[in-house]
Amino acid sequence: MPTELTIGDGPRDSLPAGTLIGVYRVEAPIGKGGMGTVYRATDTKLNRSAAIKLLSDEFADTAARQKFQREAQLASSLNHPHILTVYDAGDYKGRQYLVTEFVDGGTLKDWIKAEKRAVRQIVELMTRVADGLAVAHEAKIMHRDIKPANILVARNGYAKIADFGLAKLLGNSDAGAAGSVTKTLTEGQTRPGEVIGTIAYMSPEQASGQSLDGRSDIFSFGVVLYEMLNGKRPFSGTTDLEVLQRVIHGTPAPLGPEIPEALRHVVEKALEKDASERYQTARDLVVDLRRLGRQATSAASAVSVARPKRTWVPWAAAAMFGLAALGSAMYFRGSPANPERVNYEILPPEGGEFAAFETPDHDVMNISPDGRSIAFVGTVAGRNQIWIRERDSVTSRVLAGTENGYSPFWSPDSRSLAFFADGQLKAIDAAGGPPRVICAVAATALVGSWGSQGDILFSDFRNQDGGIRRVKAAGGTAELAVPNRPNGTAPLWPHFLPDGRNYLYSAFLDETGYQIWIGSLEGGAPKLLMPPSSHVAFGSGHVFFVREGA
């Protein structure tokens, strides 16, 4: 019987290490799926890890190539931190390939087998998966093959939905393989052109060859969640046909009493045979899972906000952080008449504290443009590292490779972080992975902003030749964009506007405060926006600042 994609398998048709596919250098095979082989690779242009899925020779016919192309198009149209990012697609010696981000862990099956997972951990991870699925459905795309092998989990516990090879636009005519069920008997691996999913994780309507919608994915998600909580699948049998019959007609055994009643209700509702009695949208499922997560957090910790042992953050900086969060969320999500109130409780790392710097010019915290995550600098055992707290998570996670890092700031798509460390400006995927060097910087470099056109601006606090410097996010040499003024005023804290060309910055005068200016990458004299104030944040067409305690 074919096997599921397993990280670490050595396919027979492996390409040798060092093979170049476009700008991608093959390093090693990491798995084999239903349509081809997956390789770990290095992007030689951007110096980052990637994964290449190469279509097998046996599936090089027109139908398989069209299916593979559809996977590339559908997956690349989705932008979500828990959906595998597509970098590139192309043709190599008559075989199509798809390039995605590299996830440095294994599949969900590997994650659950690695150690005994607490219910809270399972709910937290699967809430993120459900959120990614909801975004796909909201984009009118259903997956049709949700299973542990198609959910990758990084070593830091970050989950990614992968393999949209069977995905189809919602609303299109989508009958299953009615009349050819015998061709769907593939429990582990999906065969292109023959199957419509994986038997043990199919919905009853999918197994019966009926029309499908997003509720079919919700059933498959319920099967995965049940398996994680119970240690075995809800539908099993000695033969594939027996499994198929139980998917359609069988009733899974109830989850044990050790599973919270509210969570059992979520699983049961996701596994309803009648799609009309199931969760009607993945977003409804996410809402219930997040409520469970909040209840678990409330039960496990006190309601009051924990205070770190020491922190430099003064009231003004804290207020600006709150304004930046509000402005970013308003700009990227619109301005509803009754906006949802979101309260963040950001705790320092376990056994550590928020980083404390000699001057209050560093950014200790920064919210992502999509409003979903906060990056901050934490100190554990005397060492600074960048940590991330997702809004739908109850804990923070450290980004390996960010030792000695400070002043993190986000890319416009919320997928990457830039930060300063050891005389360099670096960037790292928010999901994890090795950092890459953007440019060398002086020790006085602080506080940056990443524009939508691929430029980065950052402050340089040197007395003589400091100012605001500019560098391409892809890498290069930083050049002076706004020099220090002759009278000694220093331009600080750049903040890109949405067009990625114009930006706000503050010019420190003296004890009287700051002036707020508008600069442009196109050159020309900067324009004074307002007299002395604080440094600023922008969102929803407004400039946020602090003045006289408000």
Structure description:
With 550 residues, this protein is an alpha+beta fold. It is built from nine helices and 30 strands. Strands 1-2-3-4-6-5 form a six-stranded antiparallel sheet, with helices on one face. Strands 12, 13, 14, 15 and 16 form a five-stranded antiparallel sheet that branches. Strands 17-18-19-20 form a four-stranded antiparallel sheet, with no helix packed on it. Helix 3 (119-138) runs antiparallel to helix 5. The longest helix has 20 residues, at 119-138. Residues 1-12, 172-195 and 298-337 have low confidence and may be disordered.
- Report the structural category: alpha+beta
Largest beta-sheet characterization? 6 strands, antiparallel
Strand content bin: 25-35%
Low-confidence stretches: 1-12, 172-195, 298-337
Q: Tell me the number of helical segments per DSSP (H or I, 4 or more residues long).
A: 9
Rg of Cα set: 25 Å
Shape: globular
Helix content: 10-25%
Q: Gap between N and C termini, in Å?
A: 67 Å
Cross-sheet strand order for the largest sheet: 1-2-3-4-6-5
Per DSSP E runs of 2 or more residues, the count of β-strands stands at: 30
Instruction: Give average pLDDT, whole number.
Output: 78
Defining key terms:
single chain, 550 residues, globular, alpha+beta, 22% helix, 9 helices, 6-stranded antiparallel β-sheet
